[in-house]
Amino acid sequence: MSARDLFDLTGRVAIVTGAGQGIGRAFAKALAECGAVPVIAELNEAKAAAVATEIMDAGGKAFAVTTDVADPASIDEMIEAVTDEFGRIDILINNAGIFSTLEMRPFDQIPLEEWERVLRVNLTGPFLCARAVLPAMRQAKWGRIINIASGAVRLGRPNYLHYIATKAALAGMSLSMARELGGDGITVNAILPGATFTEIERKTVTPAQKERIIAMQCIPRAETPDDLIGTMLYLASPASGFVTGQTINLDGGVTSS
Ligand SMILES: NC(=O)c1ccc[n+]([C@@H]2O[C@H](COP(=O)([O-])OP(=O)(O)OC[C@H]3O[C@@H](n4cnc5c(N)ncnc54)[C@H](O)[C@@H]3O)[C@@H](O)[C@H]2O)c1
Fold first, then answer.
1. Is 234 among the catalytic positions?
2. CB within 6 Å of ligand 1 — which residues?
3. Which range marks the domain in which residue 54 is found?
4. Are the C-beta atoms of 9 and 30 separated by less than 8 Å?
5. Domain count within the chain
6. Is 125 inside any structural domain?
7. Quick check: is 164 in a domain?
8. pLDDT tens digits along 113-171
9. 217: domain CATH number?
10. How many Cβ atoms from other residues are within 10 Å of residue 35's Cβ?
């Protein structure tokens, strides 16, 4: 394979869950710019359609499918729609999560229903989606699974224990999945973003906390989704074929390894 081909994503079909806004939206747009077809597998139908339109207006290809990653039947429908349309699934980015809408609270005040819902979407969702893409990836003997965890698991940030628990589990799950799938030509890696400031306002980081986070970074500016794209594209591309089971911190140097 030529050096140029190592980074060629032309025609690759990439499911990006939760791509209706924020980091997932940035990923979908970047994949389309590289010639891949992002599947915007998003719970919010209007937002999924808007991102697909945005991409197509810019000359790219995109496919929006309303999907609830907490619901196996909804995932099956999405996979069927993608398979019917494209006949292949090359890349899965498990990005959907209950995140920007989370209330911060001491863990002993988290209602059990909320705990279970966060686990269901943030952890069971990636498990269900990974399981669902396997037949297509195994048949092709090629696949890339990228789990979006969080650098917060390395910091022990308080007041959203359910979220932290799911993201730590995702990092662990990535290595074990990688061990099971290496022989099939499928890599599994986790990206651990630091506090990433998207177009969506959220309650999990106050302005004072934002300043403190930036002060902890080696690179002293706010992280944005653009800071995640290079690594995502690398992990999605043929270039990363021997990189698997890794958890990669993308936090401007707050944490190491
Ligand atoms: N922004 C950050 O600072 C940061 C840091 C570390 C990790 N992350 C992780 O990156 C990912 C994206 O973050 P973001 O800031 O864009 O989050 P966000 O909350 O802005 O967006 C999440 C998206 O997921 C969708 N979603 C929620 N539940 C879903 C479901 N059941 N099925 C399908 N889609 C669903 C939402 O509708 C939304 O479009 C999340 O997994 C988050 O935990 C974010």
1. no
2. 17-18, 20-24, 42-44, 47, 67-70, 95-100, 121, 148, 150, 193, 195-196, 198, 200
3. 5-249
4. no
5. 1
6. yes
7. yes
8. 999 999 999 999 999 999 999 999 999 999 999 999 999 999 988 999 999 999 999 99
9. 3.40.50.720
10. 13
